[in-house]
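Example A, followed by Example B.
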Amino acid sequence: MQNRLKLNIETHRVFGSEHPGLYKHPASITELSNGDLYIAYYGGSGEYSTDTAVYGSRRKSGESTWSAPAVIADTPFHGDGNPVIWQAPDGMVWLFYVNLYGGTWSEARVKAKISTDGAQTWSDSFMLSEEPGSMVRGKPIVLMDGDYLLPMYHETGSDREVLAADTVSYFLRYNPPTQKWTATNRIHSKQGNLQPQVVQLTNEHLICFMRRGGGYGPTSSGYIQRAESLDGGHKWSDATDTEFKNPNSAVDVEKLQNGHLVLVYNDHMYERTPLSIAISTDQGRTFPYRRDIGGGDNSFAYPYMIQTRDGKILVLYTTNHRTSIMLAEFPESAILDMKRN
């Protein structure tokens, strides 16, 4: 299924209920060094089910169809979720994902796999964080000093409908020469925060945007959270509210090749609709260019965004009661033409 919206935005249904894993949720995408696109998502009979597994699919460079999803991570007797697929500058493809050890995400761990042949085959899994409640969702970035920064968060509490106030975000920093991971300090906020997405503005200055904590019902205090680092990503401030609404749902931010920042989010305090895009041309101080790319009665969850080498912006998200994965593709001009008055 393909739908062309005005101003050069194309949306495609990549996977629906006819594909493996009736329940489909957080998906991620990366562009491989040969130009192929690769998607990873998790699917099964339900969010907390022990039959969930991570699936992978490829769209070869120059083609329009996706390969049949195949299992790339499956832990016997445990659910797997939140896969993050990412290719590092050295060509190694990383798969980070969550392994569920109980009935809530506060009992999860983070595992990883690597591929040295462009996601054709995978290593055995290894544990990246054994701390109960450790989670992953956002894509890593390569810092200006060559280190990798992987967004992480620590979820607490036993209530599936309320994210506890002591849920916090942080980062794991990877040094390629030593192959060592080190954790940053934790980012606190009044309602809790999770699923950070990060960009580097200068060698020393980084900012991240995060999903808020709390519940899912009507509220007047549902805003995206923001924190910053002034020492190259080693130490982070506490998080504060932004101007952007957030219904306790994932957001994403991407630094484009021209330095502009793109934010994708749900522009509502307690509904996962609409799905909106905002662009900043001044390093995140203002976001005057905004438009919706999805709306109506449906819900749009877990957006994941990349910019391909040819400059196109890709946004992956789930919809249709978490049975479908959609992909929107558009040039930056499709949003810049929608400046707010």
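Example B, a separate protein, is given below in the same form.
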Amino acid sequence: MSETEFPASGARGLGAVDLRVRVRVPAKVNLALRVAARGDDGYHQLATVFQAVALFDELTAERRRDDAITVTTRGLHAHRVDDDPTNLAVRAAVALRHHFGTADLGVHLSIDKSIPVAGGMAGGSADAAASLLACSVLWDLDTTPDDLVQLAADIGSDVPFELVGGTALGRGRGGDVMPALARGNYHWVLALSDRGLSTPSVYACFDEQVDAGKVVPLRPDDPDACTALLDALASGDAARVAPLLGNDLQEAACQLRPELREVLAAGTAAGALAGIVSGSGPTCAFLCASQPDAYLVQTVLRSLEQVDETLCVTSPAPGAQLVVS
């Protein structure tokens, strides 16, 4: 893993006086997601291009007088988030505390969500990344950015990218991230659903499709899986990027939620350069040539009964950042 920089550096010392730390963290879209057949260990090797989009959760970490780690959630889909030890933000704080041998430290995490839950945009992973950064500052731990990225990889495959942000190539299970060059800004319309999709169920469906010969999986040692897309991103030309967007999990997501095919067709017919299912879905992301084009596509999509909410966002966006109030 290459040396990583993000706004945790230079934060050492703030926690000695601050009783509250706020962090903002973005959603992500997988511009390309290539998936290998399930390995003997039950996991899938990936080759993916992540890009952070300007849709953010905000996490506030407040020091507790005891050693408890607690969480409350509000905002979009908050009723679908478990405020208990299974919450990824809590797991991240526990992992950080364990790594540094500081079991006496406590924290209350308040999460204000704008990223869809179970939407394929790394909402839980984003909150875990925010928790790592916020708690490292609040507890005044002697961390480096690379320390946090290494811890993040043990929590979830998308968590390291949520710390790094921008654009990155992910390999392995997705947690081995390398920042990539993307010139310019990109305009997206997101079509959201109030009904999430279980990531394990999407992967299980993908496995069935591979076994049936309906999908050709990634060859894990393929060095060129995302090369053409990375070249297009370096050009800054959305029209070059659009035909290279792809998701090996898209057909599985559409098999489980057939209405996603109608949403994808409607968005491209309305003028989007391309539309893809983001990650394991069900969020659909539409790349547009300009902001006015994005507004036109949004107008069409918001009229569909299969779509519960639409958003216009831009990318790339920074990873987890401290919020100075």
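On Example B: The chain has two domains: 14-180, 186-315.
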